Amino acid sequence: MTDDLAGHYRAIINGLGENCDREGLQNTPQRAAKAMQFLTRGYQQNLNELVNNAVFESAMDEMVVIQDIELYSMCEHHVLPFIGKCHIAYLPQGKVLGLSKFARIVDMYARRLQIQENLTRQIAEAVESVTNAKGVAVVIEAQHMCMMMRGVEKQNSKMKTSMMLGQFRKSQATRLEFFNLISTNR
Ligand SMILES: Nc1nc2c(ncn2[C@@H]2O[C@H](COP(=O)(O)OP(=O)(O)OP(=O)(O)O)[C@@H](O)[C@H]2O)c(=O)[nH]1
Ligand SMILES: [Zn+2]
Asked: Which of 116, 122, 128, 167 does the annotation list as catalytic?
């Protein structure tokens, strides 16, 4: 698998007019293949294994927010990185999820070829399915290298996406509480 990918990288690099046999590039196809496999390792993961039963009974029924989870993803249109932060909130009803699992869920979906909108939705639906929460909210703010390094070359624009499920979608007060919580301490 890595060797196959490395062969493709060799063709790309040679196709750019470079020479993969020169010293600095000799191991590059192999390295680039491994790096790309790492950046897309989310394809090898699944939600059940990742959560590993780290769901705990709890009487907590107020909003829980996990803020500023950094994410690195790759846009599916250009295969260039987009980089940002994810904020997740949920309203537990009897069960809370192990804290690190939120970051693992973000990474599992981020480490695939993505668009930000779908990534946002997938994270929200995963948290909902694992916790059976009364509501889940996810906000992602990210900068896309395809907008910065090429194309329109806008260095400061950010894309913000949100996905509200359950109570967050129904109740404006709940949504506002979440937006308030994530707009402080930054
Ligand atoms: N909605 C959305 N669009 C994205 C995302 N990542 C990249 N894109 C956009 O995907 C679009 C692809 O447009 P095309 O016209 O097919 O490709 P292109 O000629 O490379 O487009 P330019 O970026 O405008 O040069 C561009 O507008 C990108 O900005 C994302 O996460 N969400
Ligand atoms: Zn792109």
From this structure: 116
CB 146 near ligand 1, within 6 Å: yes
Annotated binding site for Zn(2+): 75, 78, 146
The complex scores an ipTM of: 0.87
For tokens 């491994």, the residue is: 34
Domain shared by 22 and 74, yes or no: no
In this structure, is residue 47 part of a structural domain?
no
Domain extent at residue 20: 2-39
Q: What is the pLDDT of residues 125-163, one digit of tens each?
A: 999 999 999 999 999 999 999 999 999 999 999 999 999
pLDDT in tens, 59-97: 999 999 999 999 999 999 999 999 999 999 999 999 999
83 Cα–ligand 2 center, Å: 12
* Catalytic one of 75, 87, 114, 122: 75
Is residue 45 in some structural domain?
A: no
Q: Which two tokens stand for residue 144?
A: 């896309």
**Tokens coding 179:** 């937006």
Query: Which tokens hold the place of 184?
Result: 């402080």
